[in-house]
Amino acid sequence: MADEDSRKLVERVAASRYLSKSARLRDLLVYLCDQVLDGPVTEIHEQEVGHKVFGRPADYDTGSDNIVRVHASTLRKRLEQYFAEEGAAEPVFIEIPKGNYAPVFRPRTPVEAVTPAVEPAPPTRDWRVPVLGALACLFAISTAVLLVRGAKPDRHEAADLGPMVRTFWAQVFRPGQTTDAVVDDASVGLYQELSGRNVTLSEYFDRSYLRAVDGDSANAIVLRRQSSFATVSFLSKLLSIAGPQSREVLLVFARDYSFRALKSDNAVLLGNARSNPWIEPFLPRLGVRWMFDKAQGTYYPVDTLAGGEPKTYRAADGDTRESYCGIALLPNLGGNGTVLIVSATGGSAFNAAGAFLSDEDAMANLRKVLGGGQTAFPNFEALIRVKGRSAQPRDATIVIARPVRP
Questions:
Q1: What is the pLDDT of residue 343?
Q2: Which of 219, 273, 328, 339 is the most exposed place for a label (fewest CB within 10 A)?
Q3: Residue 354 in 3-state DSSP?
Q4: Is 117 helix (H, G, I), strand (E, B) or coil?
Q5: Domain annotation for the chain: domains and CATH numbers
């Protein structure tokens, strides 16, 4: 196949609905194919791809950072989908062999080269399978247990969701725009809790904070790729509810996220600024801060906009404990999308947040408190108090709900 024809094929695949909404997958495909077509190259190494495509240091540790393997696996599946559906009439396949990242342009056999009689229908797939499958690859074995248990969550059809719930999620999952579900980095959060040292987003993004990590044990903690059970549990519930409204959901571990994505995509950021540093750019617009109590080993919210002294919210004394979850809806860094931030004091509070965001009465009440009628939700931040360990919306109380300036 002539190089010109090969490049046109790459352009068609990159522009297809299977890759067009994911800049990272497009960049990966184009880079790999360019290496082969410009070379010729018969072998491309993982470390090279991580450095050239994903901005990792030239000598980064591929054993602890699997960003290339995760995206290559997704790309292989998308290529299979394209050539089975939209590209069924293409005379040549593009394949990326496992164990090597150099693409192969392989002519179809006569049996394979069957031209479809009609325009192929969009691929029908259960959006939960690739998302939950990716989760199992990213997180520790304890989290994988949750995913096996939640592989077939209750399905909520769009008709089951109330108008306020649909209105809210339509702002997060927009047609034609990627929504990144960015799960927290529990390892970097634990490192800060144990060391008492804060890691800024710039240090986290360029990995410069690793130079300050002393000792093999500390390095082992920081380099682990784990998310908290609470955020993964929330994500499973979130996707099972919001699935009918979603068009494209890309699961991303916080360590693999980028400023470019936060400027162009919608995003759901889970955790707090310590465990998910990508929340940091939005803090100047928010009044609620999540503080760590080292003695108790828990987080608690502090409202810095309460007037006068900051107001602290802690679990009440006595038999009945209280937990809190925070919800914020803001523009992305590019002003062309939406960012949903969900933080909580623990697992039960994250579950309560998921229940609250899917309950029509709760969301209608929140919209009423924010003011402005029954239209789309404004930019806002809210703090929800939850009674005991209940995840029932009837046991949740809105203690803060205020619009946030544009």
A1: 95
A2: 219
A3: helix
A4: coil
A5: 3-107 (no CATH), 128-185+225-403 (3.30.379.10)
